[in-house]
Design brief:
The complex is a heterodimer of chains A (440) and B (283).
Chain A lengths: L19 E6 L5 E6 L3 E7 L13 E8 L4 E3 L4 E3 L5 E4 L7 E6 L4 E14 L23 E17 L9 E4 L5 E5 L3 E6 L7 E5 L12 E6 L6 E6 L4 E5 L11 E3 L12 H5 L3 E4 L5 E5 L3 E6 L8 E4 L8 H6 L9 E3 L5 E5 L4 E6 L5 E5 L16 E2 L9 E2 L11 E4 L5 E6 L2 E6 L8
Parallel strand pairs in A: 27-28
Antiparallel strand pairs in A: 1-2, 2-3, 3-4, 5-6, 7-8, 8-9, 9-10, 11-12, 12-13, 13-14, 15-16, 16-17, 17-18, 19-20, 20-21, 21-22, 23-24, 24-25, 25-26, 29-30, 30-31
Chain B lengths: L5 H20 L6 H21 L5 H24 L29 H4 L2 H7 L5 H4 L6 H19 L16 H25 L15 H5 L48 H15 L2
InterPro entries (chain B): E2F-SERTA_domain_protein, SERTA_dom
Pfam family, one (chain B): SERTA
Protein name (chain B): SERTA domain-containing protein
Chain lengths: 440, 283
């Protein structure tokens, strides 16, 4: 991914000061949705490429902004329910309107986004301002015609799926059947029908009879992209469970368990904590799964349960700093991961506003930085390096000067092109690889 | 009285911990048991902090609880294999200071260790500021800490059982038979929680206090020594094993009293000594 030409959309101002909490492209890549800590959703639309302005082609501009969730107070438990948007998932487009699901800790909402660019003119009884006409002036009948108007984007909440979860929702995933979706919290996974809000089916429940026996929680889950009966969920112990909904109504028993035995040479007090999977994503082909734990990303073959087929070190230099990272809670940071459209490159975020990309074919990897200083519009991103002592080149960053408050947790990759969206705290960066636009 | 100085103590503790965790990471002169103790203390402090939150993070609590259990298991195995080896910072009961408990006398020694007190003192000859600021917590304390946190999480979170969502159809074989039970469980949880919070006037960790009379708490213990918790059962009293399940997590600096005249006073100890003096003097 060298020689990238950058088209940066720095939306720090547009989003206010709120921290971005999720980023998601829709199925065509035309739209990009971001959710933030304040419960707002901002949708960006890609400008169609035009010959007149070749340099503006493919830029993303704000399309719509709306307040998805508000802070709530649960009076029964005296708890505040945060309005932070945990996840957004687009529904496949079935008509002119776009739909997406957005969720906070407790409630999932289905939003419909429609455009209005025409309005009817020429009513018989009303004039242009809407006032009733004096009937004596009406001498003939006319048929109202649709005339173009300025584009108006309307967003309406179509469904609210509430009261499904006792614990905090960490994932939602739309099924390939386009009729159902699932939502997962720490201990349970529910299956919903997109049209039915007053009930859901519980398909996974790992809550023990005695909470004192609790040793594992669900951290992420996703439906298989092609098989509507299969889904995977990851746990805090580093394992993946593939479940088949045809097997039984309650999928407590997994069909396949993916677990890598611990490497005894790397064992530490924090081994279990760093093995907790923070994100799981099926490849576009459906053949592989990508997981992210604290220090690595791993590619798993669905057919092999004993170990991942590929493991990439994201920031292994942190292995000797685990105690400090545990102390300041950074060890609990949940990084996401992403596939590119052809499943040949994987991407994930790190600290100091760095993000990493691994090419599965060439086995090359690169570290890039998302920051205002290094990314003027159409500037080329320079690869960065973290040095761990020893020879230090110019522009290298030493491990000790990494800024752990600047973390890139949320990243997304365009479904077909080499365009990536990176959320760095409250800034959104969109990078394009103009040189190599085709997937390889 | 109980709440006085809590914040100050905790921040002092945190500062010393920050220094310790860098020492851990650079592996400078910290032996394995010391490292383990440090991690354990950090875990317990975090769990304690989470307990004070209205809604602790379940994921983190479980990860930390598992780490504590893992360390606990290791220590148990060690103590069953080599009773003599668990000594760092443990002050045997026989050497208590007259009139007051010196800072850091450990509460409940694992049974095997208690019998080896005299051996322990002889093994420990080197004073180490790092060691003296580490905290010793007993096995039972850890278990009860984990149990209570997870139990509280259950109460906090799961009042509304999921059964109310299940359709009345036959698609959910699991639920129809468990519906009644689940609601009962939750009601019992609620009742249990009500008892827990019944005697709330003393502190927010009342689950530990419900069976203790106030006199017992202050009998012969200098409570100011305990960094993070309010309630402190007696250190040496023979009753302590029976209170194991009720007792809170106690963390306090340890000190080797076999060389009382060379106690190296580190930062945390200084503030604690001040406290002790204040109490002794009766201010």
């Amino acid at each position: 991914m060298e020689g990238e030409r950058i088209c940066e959309v720095d939306s720090g101002d547009g989003l206010g000061a709120d921290i971005i909490s999720t980023v998601e492209f829709n199925h065509t890549g035309e739209l990009l949705a971001t959710g933030d800590k304040g419960g707002r959703v901002v949708i960006f639309q890609r400008e169609p490429e035009s010959k007149n302005e070749p340099y503006n082609q493919g830029e993303y501009n704000v399309y719509s902004t709306f307040q998805s969730h508000e802070p709530e107070f649960d009076y029964l438990k005296s708890l505040e329910i945060e309005e932070k948007i945990n996840k957004i998932k687009w529904l496949p487009q079935q008509n002119a309107a776009h739909s997406l699901l957005s969720t906070n800790d407790k409630t999932i909402k289905l939003w419909k986004i429609t455009e209005r660019d025409k309005r009817p003119e020429g009513y018989n009884l009303k004039d242009e301002e809407g006032k009733l006409k004096d009937l004596s002036t009406v001498t003939s009948l006319q048929v109202p015609v649709l005339k173009p108007m300025d584009l108006m984007v309307e967003v309406t909440p179509r469904r609210i799926f509430a009261n499904g979860h006792t614990y905090h929702v960490n994932s939602i995933s739309v099924n390939s059947d386009c009729e159902t979706y699932m939502s997962a919290d720490d201990l349970r996974i529910n299956l919903w029908h997109l049209a039915i809000t007053d009930r859901s089916f519980n398909i996974v429940d790992i809550k023990p009879a005695n909470m004192e026996d609790l040793t594992e929680v669900i951290t992420a889950s996703e439906f298989h992209p092609h098989h509507c009966n299969l889904f995977v969920y990851s746990s805090s112990k580093g394992s993946l469970r593939l479940c088949d909904m045809r097997a039984s109504a309650l999928c407590d028993k997994h069909s396949k368990l993916y677990e890598e035995p611990e490497d005894p040479s790397n064992r530490s007090f924090f081994s279990e904590i760093i093995s907790s999977v923070s994100d799981v994503k099926f490849s576009h082909s459906g053949r592989y799964m990508l997981t992210r734990d604290y220090l690595t990303v791993k590619v798993w073959d669905l057919n092999m349960e004993t170990k991942p087929v590929e493991t990439y070190q994201v920031h292994d230099y942190l292995r000797s700093k685990l105690c400090s990272l545990y102390e300041n809670d950074c060890i609990f940071d949940k990084f996401e991961c992403a596939w590119n459209g052809s499943d040949s490159v994987i991407m994930t975020g790190a600290y100091n506003n760095f993000f990493r990309m691994f090419d599965r074919n060439t086995k090359r990897d690169v570290t890039l930085e998302a920051s205002r200083e290094s990314s003027k519009p159409r500037a080329i991103l320079k690869p960065r390096r973290v040095c761990v002592g020893g020879k230090r080149r110019k522009d290298d960053i030493s491990v000790d000067s990494l800024d752990f408050t600047k973390k890139i947790l949320h990243t997304a990759w365009h479904p077909t092109e080499n365009i990536i969206a990176i959320a760095a705290t409250n800034n959104l960066y969109i990078f394009q690889d103009k040189v190599n636009s085709e997937m390889h | 009285m109980l709440g006085r100085g809590l914040k100050r103590k905790l921040s002092d503790y945190e500062e010393s911990m920050a220094g310790l965790s860098s020492a851990f990471d650079s592996s400078r002169g910290l032996s394995y048991p010391l490292k383990r103790q440090l991690v354990l203390n950090m875990c317990l402090t975090k769990l304690q902090t989470y307990k004070m939150l209205v809604e602790p993070n379940l994921h983190r609590s479980v990860l930390i609880a598992n780490t504590v259990r893992q360390i606990q298991e290791e220590m148990r195995q060690e103590s069953s294999q080599q009773p003599v080896s668990i000594c760092p910072g443990i002050a045997p009961a026989a050497h208590s200071y007259p009139g007051m408990e010196a800072p850091g006398i450990s509460l409940q020694l694992p049974a095997a260790v208690g019998q080896q007190e005299s051996h322990c003192c002889e093994l420990r000859s080197v004073e180490d500021p790092i060691e003296s600021s580490l905290l010793i917590v007993s096995d039972d304390d850890m278990s009860s800490a984990i149990s209570s946190i997870l139990k509280d999480l259950d109460f906090v979170e799961d009042i509304s059982p999921p059964t109310c969502l299940v359709p009345t159809g036959d698609d959910q074989p699991k639920f129809p038979e468990n519906t009644g039970l689940k609601l009962e469980d939750d009601r019992q949880d609620l009742k249990g929680a009500e008892c827990v919070f019944g005697s709330f006037e003393i502190s927010n960790s009342t689950s530990y206090l419900k069976d203790l009379a106030i006199d017992d708490i202050f009998e012969d213990i200098d409570t100011s020594m305990y960094d993070s918790d309010f309630c402190c059962p007696p250190l040496m009293s023979p009753r302590s094993p029976s209170l194991a399940t009720e007792e809170p997590l106690k963390t306090f600096p340890s000190c080797n009293s076999s060389s009382a005249n060379n106690i190296q006073i580190c930062r945390t100890d200084l503030s604690e000594l001040d406290h002790i003096m204040e109490i002794l003097v009766g201010s």
